[in-house]
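Input.
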Amino acid sequence: MDRNSGAAAATQRTRTQDRKRELVEIAYRLIAEKGLEGFRIRQVAEAAGIDNGTLHYHFSSKEALIQSVVEHLLQDLEKNRCDRGNLKRRTAVDELRMEFEDIRLRLHASPEQFVVLNELAIRSWRDPVIAKMFRRLDDGWYAHLETLLRRGIEQGRFRKDLRIGPCARAIMVALRGIGYQSRLPRRELDALLSEILAQTEGWITSGRAPRRK
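Output.
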């Protein structure tokens, strides 16, 4: 393959990737607007100004397109939106607060993300491919929180008898549950997040475990 042919192939690959990304973003917006029950693949083609044949060139089926939307969403969720570097200066408490601040920023800037996330999470109950993708997200988040909590204990900022595994799960449940409140006014959301953060900090730093029934 000569240099010109190689450059042309690279340009074509870039165009294809850009087109696929555009279609995924359109599908993402339509799912946020209509839900999965109202989502039709032809709507994506219409919004992109292409015919169904061209769309199927990029995505062989509706399921393949939805899986790409999941991947698009998970890639964004794996990045903390308030991460500004300064790793050496952070304490475990700082990192815990960043977890809550990330959710606050998402709720303010892209509340539709939680609508799409909830729609896809429900689909994952009966779709093993999407379920596997969600497990990857959960496993990574859980491992991150476990490391954070363990570091907090080593730094002397979290109580020594903290049960790391259940605590990590509890934080995940609390933060994920906030997403179901995404339609609340911003002021109420901020107050709710602040309250849950205060309770979480009190629990893991005070030495008083939650009461068991």
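The mean pLDDT is 88.
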